[in-house]
Amino acid sequence: MKTTLPLAALGAALLLSPVSASAQVAAGTVPNSFDRPAQAQTQPARPAPAPSAPSAAAPDIARAEEALRSVITAAQGPGFDYAVFTDNLATQIRQQADQVAPLLKSFGAVKTVEYLRQEGEAQLFKVTFDNQVTEWLIGFDSDDKIAALLFRPAEG
Q1: Which of 47, 58, 71, 111 falls between 20 and 30 A from 125, CA-CA?
Q2: Residue 149: which region, alpha, beta or left (left: phi > 0; alpha: psi -120 to 50)?
Q3: How confident is the model over 59-107, as pLDDT tens digits?
Q4: Each residue of 21-51: pLDDT tens digit?
Q5: What angle do the packed helices 54-76 and 87-106 form, to 10 degrees?
Q6: Residue spans of alpha helices (H) in 2-156
Q7: How far is 106 from 76, CA to CA, in rounded Å?
Q8: DSSP H or E run through 134
Q9: What are the φ/ψ torsions at residue 129 (nearest 5 degrees)?
């Protein structure tokens, strides 16, 4: 059973505290890449989109990775820096911080952060910790604030 919590949006950006290995999150304007295997069973396969030019995508990927690393470091240390989030997302994270921060601390140190692909206007990363492998989706609003932040255990 998949668990999601309805939260306010970027419109609708979400952060979920994974309460089980099958926990996941979804964002209002960001496609839920974590349900893609289920969709594949009911929809015909689409051709893969042509990759964008590396020079155009690299700055967004680097910015997203840096922001993601900062969020994880803060959560595992002194606590979330709410100034980097949109007001809506900051409110939602505050409501879950007491559950999420200890969970992230239990994952151990970050070993690697690997960019996987773009999902809508967000970036998907695989983050390997000492004790857990996760997938993270991070997206920004027009003011360069984090508007979407989602994570779950990595599949397979």
Answers
A1: 47
A2: beta
A3: 589 999 999 999 999 999 999 999 999 999 999 999 999 999 999 999 9
A4: 333 343 434 444 455 444 444 444 555 555 5
A5: 70
A6: 36-42, 54-76, 87-106
A7: 9
A8: strand 133-140
A9: -100, 175
Q: Is 35 helix (H, G, I), strand (E, B) or coil?
A: helix
Whether the CB-CB separation of 32 and 144 falls below 8 Å is answered with no
Q: How many CB atoms lie within 10 A of CB 51?
A: 9
Asked if 88 and 13 touch (Cβ cutoff 8 Å), the reply is yes
Q: How would you class 73 by CB atoms within 10 Å of its CB: exposed for 0-12, middle for 13-18, buried for 19 or more?
A: middle
Task: Enter the tokens of residue 140.
Answer: 């920004």
* pLDDT for the residue numbered 46: 54
The answer to whether 7 touches 141, Cβ cutoff 8 Å, is: no
pLDDT band for 135, please (50, 70, 90 cuts). very high
Phi and psi torsions of 73, nearest 5°: -60, -45
User: How many Å apart are CA 134 and CA 155, to the nearest integer?
Assistant: 8
Q: In what order do the strands lie in the sheet with 146-153?
A: 110-119, 122-129, 133-140, 146-153
Rounded to the nearest 10°, the torsion over CA 43, 45, 46, 47 is: 180
